[in-house]
Structure formats: C-alpha cells, structure tokens
Amino acid sequence: VKYLTLYAFSTENWSRPESEVNYIMNLPVNFLKTFLPELIEKNVKVETIGFTDKLPKSTIEAINNAKEKTANNTGLKLIFAINYGGRAELVHSIKNMFDELHQQGLNSDIIEETYINNHLMTKDYP
After folding, report:
1. Which pTM value belongs to this model?
2. Burial status of residue 36 (CB atoms within 10 A of its CB: 0-12, 13-18, 19 or more)
3. Name one GO cellular component term (predicted).
4. CA separation (Å) from 120 to 49, 58, 100?
C-alpha cells in the first residue's frame, strides 16, 4: 500500500451540532500529537486534500506541522481528507478552470480528462 486516505471530515459535516464539530476538529490534533513521532519513524508522509483554510487554527497548525515534519519522507502517503467533499471539489475545480480559461482567452475545446484531472485536489494520487 502506497497511499492511505482517511476521510476525517466532510464539507457537509458543518451542519452537525457545534459540539460535535469541535470534537471532530480536535481528532486530528490529538491523533498527530500522539502518533507523529511514529509516523516520522516509519517514513510516512502526511498530506491533505480539502479546504483546510476553513478549519480551526489549532487543527491547521497540527496538520501543517505534521506535513512539514514528514515532507521528506518517502514511504506511505497518509492523506487526510478534511473539510473535503467530492461535489465541493468539483465546484471548486470547475470555477478554477473557468477562471483560467477566461483569463487566458481560451475556449472549452481545451477541456479534456487530463485538463480536468490537473485541477483536482486528488491529481497526485491514483
């Protein structure tokens, strides 16, 4: 296994009760506090997909710290899907593609599978 994705929090989960959201947001913080040394030791690289800029500061800091400390690791890629949703990713990607085409004066003829894939958060993963 070269890639492992943990679906930590969906974009749809923001509608849950605030106490539940807060609890879920602390899970990555606690997990990384406990297991980061082992992840480093086992050559695991921590990565994320999702809209992490909308997360609580403590969650962002824990994730960024783990990504920084494992950046040069070459083993398993542990991908946290946090504040991620497939539909949200599609909307985000389509808007980015539209803006790019508009700014470059291009039309939709350029759009093909590779072009779309290059605009997805999952572009680096099989």
Report:
1. 0.87
2. middle
3. cytosol
4. 10, 26, 14
Residues forming beta bridges with residue 47, ordered by sequence position: 79
Give residue 108's pLDDT: 84
The span from the CA of 98 to the CA of 28, in Å, is 33
Tokens matching residue 100:
């790019």
Q: Where are the domains of the chain?
A: 3-84, 86-126
Helices (H), 1-126: 18-41, 57-69, 86-104, 113-117
pLDDT tens figures, 51-65: 999 999 999 999 999
Tell me the two tokens of residue 17: 């009760």
